[in-house]
Design goal:
- The structure is a homotrimer.
- Chain A has about 300 residues and is an all-alpha fold.
- Chain A is built from 16 helices and no strands.
- Chain A has helices spanning about 1-10, 15-25, 35-50, 55-75, 80, 85-100, 105-130, 140-155, 175-185, 195-205, 210-230, 235, 245-255, 260-285, 295-305, 310.
- Chain A starts with a helix and ends with a helix.
- Chains A and B meet through helix 7 and helix 8 of A and helix 14, helix 15 and helix 16 of B.
């Protein structure tokens, strides 16, 4: 099937554009595979449907195609476009805006602007971070979304969904482990749904089994650390202490460094530290009322990848 | 007249120093012309006089000459000094300090320190930003002034003018458009005065007609966007949603990129995004009570200029 | 004695590790001398004992050896390890954690994680800052500690010592000068003790007399400036307006630049500005309740050292 598809992509511009978008959906988990992306999109629609807010899924799809299209418009590097490196920030902006803004035409205006800006920011940030050999990762999504949400507070015609603090849910039991691990994986796309998490995991595994193993490891390590330090049990239960560590685990443990025992220990330490950064950013951002999104992952990934040049 | 003046500047050190300062006054709008600078200075004095706070104008003049003098003292690049590239941050610091601090000897101490630091910060920031081919722009003014204002909160002998939030003024009518556009241009120098705005515009036009057209375009686009999103009408009316977009328009649309239809659309999108960044920074800085100054412009300009290396 | 020790260090790994750690203790004051470091450690134990919180001293020692050990583990540059360039951030993390967190097993878990992360952050930050020829200085200590303290707010099992704002103590008299100068020097290691400050000063002087002179100058200048601007007298009296200026004075005036009259004036201006940055960061960080630590020094040092490339 891959060969047939690849041939089609090489010959047909529409198929090529579709392929770039599907790979963009998979790049959030640092995978480069259109079938992984297709399955992730399906899982997002399932999760959004289950939560009764399909706009999250339509927004994600819209953010994906807009950001990829803007990259073509700005004549960005074609190979990067094809690998989906402009779409993965757009899909996240597109999922985040309907999550935090009330359904309203102005919400869609913000979503379109945000998706377009995420591509410009991808170019700007990668121009800076490549100086030290690290990627911009999801930083364009984070900064774009945080700016849009802060702006919405000042705009009467762009209403925000009231932020509710995670309630301190009942104590967490070992039997809750499976669900929390799955939700931690699904929260990477701002969705708290067990089925979505399992589908994401399968989608990752069909491209890279090691990445899937580390995704689960990241979710487990972050769960143990968050419970151990006494983090808010409602937030833990929703997977909100896990999604950043899932990405750290895949990035540091499976994708960016050559596998070795040393790298595995280094990655586990990075997962532990991601939970601390998550808690820190939750505290730091509370006064201005914006979510940390995947910033704990991005900061930790930079922190643990930047020393490489020295370590070699 | 230009030739006579240029000859004098080449022969006479005092005229050279005066020329560098006048160009510094014009560089706030990214122009390099002593007559533009002279007219801008006159317009600042008019606006400060009209507002009954001449210290803003004397402070601006003092900031200008001090920052330029410190650049000479530190043996900065003579060509940059002559183009006024050290004065334009100093003039802005000098206008901002008497705007936000109560008239008092300590205010002048802060102003002198701030003007001197702005030159050191200009050297420091340009050393960093030139790595990626962008200028430091008004970042030295912004960071110096914000630091001084934050410090004043902790110093009993350096009293701050009480910050009043912009009241929600009556609704904005199309007939208010001209005044708001003019005030948006005048607010670049922290002055809300229609005559000053018109004089600024003429001063820009005598050096670069395209810059003047884009200044007006930036003011109009930001007005429409701010009204459309439902921003605070008092702030819009005072020109506070416009001054950053005016600078973005001049920078991205007229000065930093070669004119083309694509650049014009790119610049219009940058102006729209400047309004969002302005609203976002107003929200983000509210808990610590400092103004965003021209940071919305600088961030947007960096965002839209940094991809260039990739786009080529 | 130095020769005997150097021979031992060259032959014996344990002595080499001890030497690296002692130099690490001295590098906080930008000195590279094991005897200076030994005396500083002794002075820390004295100060912690006098304050009835010996965990600060044991924490400092633990942070020192852990961060140095992690640098060896990560195969960092051996010459840098030997000079103590990985230990000085660890010793500060180790002193800060027991200062701000309640004595508790989780406090020690945080301390160990923090010391290890400070080494990774030292590699990451120096990789960035060396692009412009400046050192990362104590930035790894600052960011690690601030992250850990912000995280502790969100963790029920990692209790924070309640932050008390510095009370406005009685007015400061010239006769208080000696004690405040000494406490300013001791506060570099988060200790407010006159004897510790005097011992620190002697320890610096046995390696570099000029550094000791500038340390005193930094403490005096910051005292005069803070009193003049009307800063909180309790904070001034505790040395909290002095420690950053002490480091700025040593760095800009004695270590990083070749001595000259110009450099001395430049350094004095840097000391004055450090006090303003200190006040500004105190204000800016109040809403999220974290201490500025030595960030005023690091920001000022970067600001005043970054222009160098241009000034030459």
């Amino acid at each position: 099937m891959n060969k047939v598809w690849d041939d089609l992509v090489a010959r047909n511009q529409v198929a090529g554009y579709l392929d770039a978008n599907l790979r963009g959906a998979s790049q959030v988990f640092l995978q480069d595979n259109p079938w992984t992306g297709l399955m992730i999109l399906a899982a997002i629609f399932w999760g959004a449907h289950a939560a009764g807010n399909l706009e999250v899924a339509f927004g994600a799809a819209a953010g994906l195609v807009i950001s990829t299209f803007v990259a073509i418009l700005l004549r960005a590097d074609p190979a990067s476009i094809q690998q989906g490196l402009f779409g993965f920030n757009g899909i996240l902006v597109g999922a985040a805006i309907p999550t935090y803004l009330v359904s309203h035409p102005a919400m869609w205006v913000f979503l379109v602007i945000g998706a377009a800006v995420s591509t410009i920011l991808t170019l700007a940030i990668s121009n800076i971070t490549q100086t030290w050999g690290v990627s911009g990762s999801t930083a364009p999504f984070i900064f774009t979304t945080q700016l849009l949400l802060l702006a919405a507070s000042a705009f009467a015609n762009v209403p925000l969904v009231p932020m509710q603090g995670a309630a301190n849910a009942p104590a967490i039991w070992p039997s809750d482990g499976f669900d929390i691990v799955a939700r931690s994986i699904s929260q990477v796309h701002l969705i708290g749904n067990v089925v979505t998490g399992v589908l994401f995991l399968i989608a990752i595994a069909i491209n890279s089994f090691r990445s899937a193993v580390f995704a689960v490891l990241g979710a487990i390590v972050s769960l143990v650390v968050a419970v151990g330090f006494g983090a808010n049990s409602g937030a833990i239960s929703a997977g909100l202490y896990g999604y950043s560590a899932v990405l750290t685990a895949i990035a540091v443990g499976a994708v960016l460094n050559r596998p070795s025992t040393g790298v595995t220990f280094y990655a586990i330490f990075a997962m532990i530290f991601t939970v601390i950064v998550q808690a820190a950013l939750n505290t730091a951002m509370a006064p201005i009322g914006i979510p940390a999104l995947t910033l704990p992952y991005v900061l930790t990934m930079w922190l643990f990848q930047l020393p490489k040049a020295e370590r070699r």
